[in-house]
Amino acid sequence: MEDSVRSEYFELLKFRSVGADPSHLRDCSDCAVWLKKWLEALGFEAELRMPDVKDGVAAPPIVFASRKGDEGRPVVLVYGHYDVQPVDPVADWNTPPFEPSEIDGRVYCRGAQDDKGQSFAFLCGLRDYLSSPEGAKAPAIKVVLEGQEESGSGALMSLAPSWRKDLAADVLAVCDTSAAAGLRPAIVAGLRGVSHFTVRLTGPNRDLHSGEYGGIAPNPAQAIAELVASLHNADGSIAVAGFRDGIEPPTEPERRAAEAGAMSEAAYADDIGCEPVGGQMGKTIVQRNSFEPTIEINGIHSGYGGPGSKTVIPSGAIAKISMRLVPGQSVRGAFEAVRAHLEDRVPRGMKLFVEDYNPGAGGFRLPLASPVFRLASSVLEDMDPRGPVFQWDGASIPVISVIREVSGAAPLIVGWGQTEDRIHSPNESYSLVQFAKAREWARRLFEAL
What we know:
By secondary structure, the chain is α+β, with helices and mostly antiparallel strands.
């Protein structure tokens, strides 16, 4: 990596662009301004689009840029996000989370991979292409970079339908996913959708002395544990009536292709430090992660959690819940099924509230015979003689479903992440080799187009 590119990369990483936290709105705005200026230097007409203030809270700006090109070539829309996950728990970081540190060929920093590193590497490859002789006949290119992907893309999801003309394109290029093991190229042929919400239980009007009121007052901490445990059967299958309605199973070619590129159970165990036994018993890891929906408990909070003990009966409890959805499922229908399940099981003496519902978007799968997949496969075979595998990613980029519908573009989702990048965790990193792969992919893709 050239010193000039390293300097730009590190400068971008230093912005504390935690889009979900209103206290970091200025950091997000500064980051968006930096990206706008960077794109303008490439000949783009760039602007910051400011979302409306909602409930007194402003959302981070959206960077939109466009560059005219050869009318005889496909129009390419590039999507990425500059917001990052919160850095908690800070104590678990080995280096300051917003001070990029290069160690043994890896850059450690929040956003080093997700998605500042991946999207910036792709944009650097675009710059390489535009500055080459082939770039003289570049296609028309549009770029959308948002600051809320990690918290649901609320602003872009609501605004995109009114930007049909601006977003209209033939190919939607996204670099925000992972390659297969050993950095073998991977084309994402589908993504699960995601929704999330908070469940709150209330009981006594205050925290109570567990001796004076034990055996008398209902306990929300115990109740929330029982309530969330009821969402699954003993074999790990989902126990919510109606949740799975409408699911479209994968075709046999899709299932075979997904299994062919999958990590082994031993590799997953080595990655996560325990056996990969989540989900329904009797189904393979690929089935559970690529083609099955999930209901996950993201956090439970109640009572006292500090040092020592505090013998109380808590007055309330909350659970953070997310759902990964697959094609055919109704986003609203799945949520209502879970809500009805929980409301039917509210423990005696308590009240249940469902709050902070973010519907996100549903899952999708793309046809393996897509022309853009054939083009991508050819490019990736030139990069790596092993050729690409196809993946149906268990993760979600909900806004892709919306942009796909609004723009009319064929999604081409190719990323270069690896499990050791530890995205969303302390000590996130991205190797210089991965950065170079993402950069080369972008250059070769535009040359092929």
